[in-house]
Design goal:
The chain is an alpha+beta fold. Helix content is 24%, strand content 31%. It has helices at 14-22, 44-49, 79-92, and strands spanning 5-6, 35-36, 53-61, 67-74, 94-95, 98-100, 103-105, 107-115. The strands form 3 sheets. The protein has a 4-stranded mixed β-sheet, covered by helices on one side. A hairpin with a 5-residue loop joins strand 3 and strand 4 (67-74).
Length: 122
């Protein structure tokens, strides 16, 4: 199995850029052409307290594009952020799997989920 690789922000597709402009609170700052994913729900108590943070997650993308496993690589220091990021990844993220000779295969990826208060409401 290959080692995890970081998703680069420079590979954003036009559709992802357009979606982020039209609704910036639904996408994290690291959305790439590999990811079709929504931003996890921002915990209301953290909005009221003014708490922000980043969670680095590692996800195992199966050949069918579903997330088979997810784990926190570097937590935010806030349990609700870490749990929200993992729950969203496991339940809702769909990815474009890696391909070799046109055939999809399973691989680990690292992504950062950013929780920023801009445009958030309790």
């Amino acid at each position: 199995m290959r080692s995890p690789r970081s998703a680069g922000a420079s590979t954003r597709s036009p559709s992802v850029r357009a979606a982020r402009r039209s609704n910036p609170t639904r996408w994290s700052t690291c959305a790439t052409t590999r990811a079709t994913r929504c931003q996890p729900t921002y915990p209301a108590s953290y909005i009221r307290q003014g708490i922000e943070g980043n969670v680095d997650v590692e996800i195992f993308v199966q050949p069918n594009g579903r997330v088979g496993d997810a784990r926190v690589i570097r937590g935010s220091g806030y349990d609700l952020f870490d749990r929200a990021a993992l729950e969203e990844a496991r339940r809702n993220w769909r990815m474009l799997p890696a391909t070799r000779n046109g055939e999809p295969y399973a691989q680990w990826y690292r992504l950062r989920v950013v929780f920023k208060l801009k445009n958030q409401q309790p």
